[in-house]
From TrEMBL:
UniProt source species: Methanonatronarchaeum thermophilum
Gene name linked to the record: ubiX
Cross-referenced PANTHER family: FLAVIN PRENYLTRANSFERASE, FLAVIN PRENYLTRANSFERASE PAD1, MITOCHONDRIAL
Domain named Flavoprotein: residues: 2-171
UniProt keywords, alphabetically: Flavoprotein, FMN, Prenyltransferase, Transferase
Binding locations of FMN: G7, A8, S9, S34, S85, T86, K87, T88, R120
Protein name, UniProt field: Flavin prenyltransferase UbiX
EC number: 2.5.1.129
Function description: Flavin prenyltransferase that catalyzes the synthesis of the prenylated FMN cofactor (prenyl-FMN) for 4-hydroxy-3-polyprenylbenzoic acid decarboxylase UbiD. The prenyltransferase is metal-independent and links a dimethylallyl moiety from dimethylallyl monophosphate (DMAP) to the flavin N5 and C6 atoms of FMN.
Length: 183
């Protein structure tokens, strides 16, 4: 599984997803952190950059275009960009592959693999919305970081777990991070 952390506020969603995925012994995690994502880890998550990298099996900087995940011949189960900045969304939508995050996302699209973009921007302008439509038509899932309240969250962590759980749902990964809707 490829996990990319980019420069949108909401890095806690990405670090929490990494925590959960790292608990699965059969999931090999390839982590890519953009320069802006690296800064946000320290500002928003309470983690050090090194401790985040330690949770992954493999880690890369966004400039490491020689990484195995840059090639379609390297098989993965998919990729999550959590959080996905609107800059990253735009690059993916336009096929700009000038860093490892956007190249790996492009590989997932061209190979028909899962690509989940957890966007965390508000409000959205027409360009953002059009880019979301473009990546959706190309096969990606756009998952805005919008927690549901039917599970009666009591803490910010509960709201983060809801979004992380919905992300895992897209990857068909079993979890118990939130209480599912029962009507």
């Amino acid at each position: 599984m490829i996990l990319a952390l980019t420069g949108a506020s909401g890095i806690r969603y990405g670090t929490r997803l990494l925590e959960v995925l790292s608990e699965f012994r059969d999931v090999e995690i390839h982590l890519v952190v953009s320069d802006a994502g690296r800064k946000l880890i320290e500002i928003e998550s309470g983690y050090s950059f090194e401790s985040v990298v330690d949770m992954a099996d493999f880690s890369y900087g966004s400039g490491e275009m020689e990484a195995p995940i840059a090639s379609g011949s390297f098989r993965t189960d998919g990729m999550c960009v959590v959080p996905s900045s609107t800059k990253t969304l735009s690059s993916i939508a336009c096929g700009v592959t000038d860093n490892l995050v956007t190249r790996a996302a492009d590989v997932c699209l061209k190979e028909g693999r899962e690509l989940v973009l957890v966007t965390r921007e508000t409000p959205l302008n027409l360009i953002h919305l059009e880019n979301m439509v473009k990546v959706s038509k190309a096969g990606a899932t756009v998952l805005p970081a919008s927690p549901g309240f039917y599970s009666n969250p009591e803490t910010v962590d509960d709201m983060v777990d809801f979004v992380v759980g919905r992300t895992l749902d897209q990857l068909d990964v079993e979890h118990n991070l939130y209480r599912r809707w029962r009507g």
